[in-house]
Amino acid sequence: TSRQSATPKSCTQTTCSWRLRLEPVAKSLGVPPGVKIKVAIADDSRLVYSDDYRQGWKAGFEAIGCDVQVFDISVLRRIGTTTMSPYRSRSMPGTAKSIADQICKWKPHLVWCHHGRAASNDEFLLRLKKDGLRTAVYLCDEPYESGETTRYSPKFQFVFTMDPCTIEAHRRSRKDRDGVYYLLKLVNEPL
Description:
It is a single chain. The chain has a 6-stranded parallel β-sheet with strand order 2-1-3-4-5-6, with helices on both faces. It is of the alpha/beta class. 36% of the residues lie in helices and 16% in strands. It starts with 12 loop residues before the first helix and ends in an 8-residue tail after the last strand. It has helices spanning 13-29, 51-63, 76-79, 95-106, 122-130, 146-152, 167-172, and strands at residues 38-43, 67-72, 110-114, 134-139, 158-161, 180-183. The longest helix has 17 residues, at 13-29. The chain has 7 helices and 6 strands, in the order H-E-H-E-H-H-E-H-E-H-E-H-E. 30% of the residues are buried.
């Protein structure tokens, strides 16, 4: 099956270190011990200057023992994020739900959203939430876009940022202050 043991036959010091850090994440996602975490990457393939991230997320999750599948959500950029407008999804009715249905069929433990603008579509997130899927957003342009990202980061259960100064802004942007916030250091920074 696709949910095999998360422990590979060989384990380098780096991947073992990350696997130990991954155990609390697996527990918070409700993944039983010994089961691979399934990560669906909601890929906004039209995001400019993000090819390195787009390729790196899949490779990185696989390197720490996750089962990964990539879903292109770039069409959600054209739809928008608001549910209040009577014109939402007029150009492509049902598209956001259809993309979310594809992800739900795979039954991931986590839906990883790079940047979050396209993935913050309410119809898309509501469908994922209906199936009980957990969502995470990585905000790569902090602090430059925190004025915008604090408006949509509350829609995700997990918020990752590369700037420690914006964690509090994202916490305050939620009505209930709940959520999980992480500082995701760059690869070239010591842990």
